[in-house]
Write a structure and sequence with these properties.
Length: 581
Amino acid sequence: MVQQSQPRRDAYPGHPDETAGELDRLRDVRADAPDQAAAQQRAERRNRALVATIEAQRAVTAAVHDRAEVLRVVADRAVAAFPAADGAVVELLVPGDTLEYAAAAGTLLPHVGTVLPLAGSLSGLAMAAGATVRCGDTERDARVNAEACRRTGIGSMCIAPLHAAQRAIGVLKVSSRAPGAFDEADEQQLELLAASLSGALRHAEDYAHNARLLQERTDALAQLAQRNVELAAERAYLNEMLDIINVSVMTCDREGNLVHLNRAGRSVPAGPPPTRIEHLHRVAPAGQDPAPDHHPLARALRGEVIEAAPMVLHGGSGRDRALIVDARPLPDPGGRPSGAICTAFDVTALRDREAELAGFAGVVAHDLKNPLTGIIGFAEMAAELLDEAGTGRGLGTAARYVTRVKENAQHMDQLIDDLLAFATTRDAPLRPGWADLSAMVGHIVMVRSGHLPPPDRPDILAADLPTVWADPGMLRQVLDNLIGNAVKYTRPGSRAEVTVSAERGPSQVCIRVADRGIGIPADQRQKVLSQFHRAHTGQGYAGTGLGLAICQRVIDRHGGTIDIAENPGGGTLVTVTLSQP
């Protein structure tokens, strides 16, 4: 039996089942149509917002070097990027925990410069949370400053924080006068725009900072260039001034390299210009080793201070030259030695002239002393003859007159000796060496008292005395004057008692001459060291008033001191202090 096939249900378009399915699909399409339209609107809105954000980023990038322009551009673009917004503002943190309307657009533009407290504001909340926040109704939202919103005409708003160097510096805010103007999509878009603004602000601040640094460095270089010009002019002026003076001036750095030599300094050396201390001609005190490290500039570089020291320049211009030298170290602002300076005044011609004057004085003194010697000698012989002739009144008076002639001639002889010594001790060159004090004092005592009978000899005690460094001839003159005064100024009828002692220390020696004589009043002790001053005028003690002045001058030239005090138990104590190598 053959079965007949059944036709398919969908073989006939007008079949009832097919018609029902199509009807269901049509109903579904009609139901989804509003959702699709809304979705399409949202997509278009996002596209418009994205395009507006991109345009805002481009505008910000174009203005990145100008911070104020960046803020203005962002505020303007924010209003354009958010269709629901009628105002936008960039609020930046300022001192005092407040926010300032730094830039604005739309309805908020008139409020640029407004300052609001950070506390109690939605902007402060966004900065603290570090996230975008939204307010749908400023009248009902307890988080906002409702009064400030009323003044600025804000009904709803969306706020995103701005960051720089990982810290909140302010907010970007878009607003609308109408409540509920913004949604979640607006929050996302505002966050993106705020990120662009944060980056632009960082770039603008970096640019401004670099521009300031560049300007500061440019200004500093200009000032430095101007100062270099001024220094060059000052240096030229100083060099010209130093070249005029007839004193050698030389400076060096801490390494011993010569920095400056004036004309007088350059004229002394022969050959190529010196560049270091050791290239200079050798200079040292008379009688000392003129090695390069003994040069006064080298000594000053080691920290020594040299003041008005007489020295000799060896091998200058065919002969040794006499100099007066000063030198001292040059400290830097921190007090550390940065170099040294030395000045040297050539006194060779002056010393030559002084030698001529000394020779002239010697000739004059000799010529004066020769007649005096004859007067004294003949007066002595006449006195002896008169004594032998008898003791008549006339002869006795003549003898007294002759004695007076002899005494005055002796006084004049002593005055000439003292004047000559006073003149020569100031200008005669020092020739220091080792001097045996014991031998020197022993010779002085022998000359002064060796010819006297024992009852008339002064009692002079010289303790064990050391060897000292000084000019032997000048030191002997000092000791001879001091011992002579100690013997002379003794009370009438008393025997002179004198003690000479010395004490040597690490760097100096003290020589003391003590007597038991009439002493020196306290108010006269300093004065007797000056020339022609006598403390006991009219008391029968002969003298010229130059002996102690000669001592003072000699000790000054040795760089020492002389002090006069009362000797405990009566008399005078004179202390001479000399530096020792």
